[in-house]
Design goal:
By secondary structure, the chain is of the alpha/beta class. It has two domains: 103 residues, Arc Repressor Mutant, subunit A (Orthogonal Bundle), CATH 1.10.10; 304 residues, pyruvate-formate lyase- activating enzyme. Helices cover 40% and strands 18% of the residues. It has 19 helices and 19 strands. The strands form five sheets. It has a nine-stranded mixed β-sheet with strand order 9-10-8-7-6-5-4-1-13, with helices on both faces. The protein is globular, with a radius of gyration of 22 Å. Its EC number is 1.3.98.3.
Length: 471
């Protein structure tokens, strides 16, 4: 059961009461909750046999399927990047990888009912457009042979594109392969910033692809931007936003850069003294909200924005928005099968993840079994909390009565501790309580991850229970 909620429109977002001090007090790094429990809670006691059993069980529910394909290769390494990637210019390396992907498809598809529709398909990376056009065709043919791809107009087949590695012929080829949605990496249009992150990308590359995508009739197009990159200022990022708004993409993702050079070696190439401070970064976020709201975009949640006529905004208004490993989705829940190095699956009541190292992924498949090397089977409490977090982050509200009826429990009693933790956020004006309903305020939408952490039984205590008055 999903509660239907009325969302505030762009004009309401424009009246957001901006409280810099409050935002800084709640400025703690937290999960994005594309899964719950998060990947940090996966364990090595979960292996290929556990995943095979989950695939077989999932046939009883008969949900449609979603396929995620991870293409780890990039020709150029962007300094800010935190993704699992292999930087190389040798496209021949992809041939062996495509062969392993096909082996993984065979092993996973044999456990699935062939009649289940592949409603969603997503190629991510790395850079999927690293593949040559004939390699893309080969991969689509293999996917179709193993799973049977959908020809429905309602399918959601998307691919991430690096505008430096694609042109109008690429888009025409992708359309012929069945893709109907695109996501373009931009990050920033300021040349100084581009040089500082090793991603020089002239505006004309992005504009030409957007124009061609519109002409070809792609259903939706997303642009990725990042706030907090080296040499960015509130004025320079406002100029990037103005140019992006003029391009009129259906969706925008405005991520916040997190500098962790101890974990991501490429970030060591970024000069820490060039990074904008917290106040400047928050000023950029403020400008983002004001400018996108004035341009008519709806703040879906976290770092996602969409035009009111886009399927994301429509789904949110109807209370049917969902979340998966790619973020927000307008489609009904699907069992997700992740294929490729580091890919994560969400099937039935389990999460299963492949090795992050290419060599380990290859060894598993060469040995004739699926590459799963860690995962988790969810308990009843995990599933209830996952549902609560998803509805809160999608609807910006949570109906505890509806949640209790769905799971056959008294939700207010079962979630007594999270509700107590949220009292601090309620006093700070981030959420309001009206009977059994929690409603996130406009300022609370900016901190929705922090609100979701209250329901996370596995979160570090200092994150789940932090009192902003003493932060």
């Amino acid at each position: 059961m999903t509660a239907h909620v009325k969302r505030e429109g762009p004009e309401d977002s424009a009246r957001l009461a901006w409280d810099m001090a409050l935002l800084r007090r709640y400025d703690t790094r937290g999960p994005r909750y594309t899964s719950y429990p998060t990947a940090r809670g996966f364990h090595e006691g979960f292996g290929p046999d556990d995943f095979s059993a989950a695939l077989a069980r999932s046939n009883d529910q008969g949900q449609p399927l979603s396929l995620y394909i991870h293409v780890p290769f990039c020709r150029n390494g962007c300094f800010y990047c935190t993704r699992n990637k292999i930087v190389t210019r040798d496209t021949r390396l992809a041939e062996a990888y495509l062969s392993r992907l096909d082996r993984e498809m065979v092993l996973s598809s044999r456990h699935l009912d062939a009649s289940r529709e592949i409603q969603q398909l997503y190629w991510g990376g790395g850079t999927p457009t690293f593949l040559a056009l004939d390699q893309m065709s080969d991969l689509i043919d293999r996917l179709d042979a193993r799973f049977g791809l959908s020809g429905s107009r309602e399918r959601d087949y998307a691919i991430e594109i690096d505008p430096r590695e694609a042109n109008v012929f690429t888009l025409r080829h992708l359309q012929a392969l069945g893709f109907n949605r695109l996501s373009l990496g931009v990050q920033d249009l300021d040349l100084r910033v581009q040089r500082a992150i090793n991603r020089v990308q002239p505006r004309v590359l992005t504009e030409s692809l957007i124009d061609e995508a519109d002409r070809l009739g792609f259903r939706s197009l997303n642009l990725d931007l990042i706030v907090g990159l080296p040499l960015q200022t509130r004025d320079s990022f406002a100029e990037t936003l103005a140019q992006v708004i003029a391009m009129a993409p259906a969706r925008l993702s405005v991520f916040n850069y997190v500098h962790r050079p101890e974990r991501f070696t490429s970030q060591r190439r970024i000069h820490v003294e060039d990074l904008p401070g917290p106040e400047e970064t928050l000023a950029m976020l403020h400008a983002t909200l004001e400018m996108l709201s004035s341009a008519g975009y709806v703040h879906i949640g976290m770092d996602h924005f969409a035009r009111p006529d886009d399927s994301l905004a429509i789904a949110q208004r109807q209370g049917t928005l969902t979340r998966n490993f790619q973020g927000y989705s307008s489609h009904t829940p699907c069992d997700l099968i992740g294929l490729g190095v580091s890919a994560i699956s969400r099937v039935d009541d389990v999460y299963a993840q492949n090795p992050a190292e290419l060599a380990a992924y290859e060894r598993a498949l060469d040995a004739g079994h699926m590459a799963t090397d860690r995962g988790r089977r969810l308990t009843f409490d995990d599933r209830l909390r996952r549902h609560a977090i998803e509805r809160l982050m999608c609807d910006m509200a949570l109906d505890l009565g509806a949640l209790g009826r769905t799971f056959g429990v008294d939700a207010e009693t079962h979630l007594a501790d999270p509700l107590i933790r949220l009292e601090v956020a309620e006093r700070d004006g981030l959420v309001t309580r009206v009977g059994p309903r929690l409603v996130v305020t406009p300022i609370g939408r900016l901190l929705i991850q922090h609100l979701a952490m209250a329901f996370d039984a596995h979160a570090p205590p200092q994150l789940a229970t932090s009192d902003s008055r003493n932060a």
